Amino acid sequence: MKYNVLLMAMLLSGSCVANELPSFLDANDINNAEFSCLEAEQTYSKNDQKYVDILWNETLQYLQSYAVALTNSENGPCLNSDEAMYDSTDGGKNMCIMDRRDMKLLVKNIYQVINNPDKAKKCFGARENVDWIYSPGGKLAQNSPVAKWLKRTTFDSFFDTKVTNKDVRKLGKEFTKHFTEMVTGNEVKMPSAFPTDISANTLPNLWAAAGWYPMYAEESKRNDKNYNNIRGGYAYAEIFGHWGLLRIDAINDEKVGAEVGMTVQSVNTLYPYHNHAISEIYYNMRVPACANEFKSFAIREDSPLIQTVKEDDKVRQVQFDAGQHNGHTMWLSSSADRDPLMYFHQNTIHAFDVDGSCEAKPEERAIVSVWARSNAHDKRNDYGTTLLCESAKNPGTPAHKDEVIQCDLTKMKW
Question: Are 382 and 376 in contact (CB under 8 A)?
């Protein structure tokens, strides 16, 4: 593969060097960039700083490899770009992901960080005082000196003390018990676009200590439309972004919308139909146990298959018949080896179905993804809110694959 020798040296050693830029980026915007942080620079004792440095070096490796993957054109027809599925209907629709302006900006932000690491590091911290992000615990944390130093509250404690639904708590404890097996081992594999492995197999401190959040586990009105097994079997961590370790407000006086991290979803679960105003991408990092184990659904808001029910100046309520006779053909398979990259435009209705029936040890398996949102700085469009769809027949209850579903789509402001 045609990767710069210095780039590879940086990835393998954690050292900081200037990196070759994709041709669509202007070096004048990258080199000597100036950073504005979301909070004051954190200071640590000499002893503590060594753990922060480990976390920082693994963060740089994660971001570097990710940027290279997004701009890698060796596996398809694109120029300086990987190819992504963006709509699963009509046999599936693909595009060159770098055709999107928001993706170019996300990659630009990453290169501004990795080419100016000393400046960017001023916006980086271990977030040790944040009480709503957690350690997965288990062997992953036990084998990480950074996680042991941080002493974050564990998933185990979270599900014991923060979760009132007994079924969700039980499922969450099972998720916690096997989290290490879910994110490590031979089943976890990087898509070929990545120059290096950035999974927990290679970056154990980042995956153990980034700070995870089981976003659906606690009680909320939104969860009336959710499934208990997702509430107890899903978590994400954010590395770069407003809620992550690297918290940058602006670079060269331009607001930063990049939000990058990872997600884990247990097998034998359906992440329900949902949407949000912010564009989102996933790279699948799992080798499936059978051909159609990981299936994804995506339909854009302007599809003729979507019908508007009612609308006001903020929201358009729509319906889609998920149970139509050919509905099953609208779910496409994905894995680390097959169509691993997905891009969801703003308001795209999407869902993930993970069938664990072919897994020998389903309790130890999950779909693992590199995840990002691209324009998270635009708070006019309800930054951070994921809206779950519902049953059109029984509003307020989860939307199933065999019925008409109903979703509220945000009316975007520009």
Answer: no
Give residue 251's Cα distance to chain centre: 22
CA distances from 78 to 2, 22, 84, 194 (A): 16, 13, 10, 16
pLDDT tens digits along 13-60:
444 445 689 999 999 999 999 999 999 999 999 999 999 999 999 999
Residues 6 or more apart from 18 whose CB is under 8 A from it?
A: 6, 31, 115
CA distances from 241 to 259, 357, 378 (A): 4, 36, 13
Q: 302: which residues sit within 8 A by CB, 6+ positions away?
A: none
- Paired with 37 in beta bridges are 248
Model pTM?
0.94
Q: What is the CA radius of gyration of the chain?
A: 21
Are the C-beta atoms of residues 207 and 183 closer than 8 Å to each other?
yes
CA 257, CA 384: separation in Å to the nearest integer? 12
Cβ neighbours around 208 below 10 Å, total: 30
- How far apart are alpha carbons 273 and 88 in whole angstroms? 13
Tens of pLDDT, residues 137-184 = 999 999 999 999 999 999 999 999 999 999 999 999 999 999 999 999
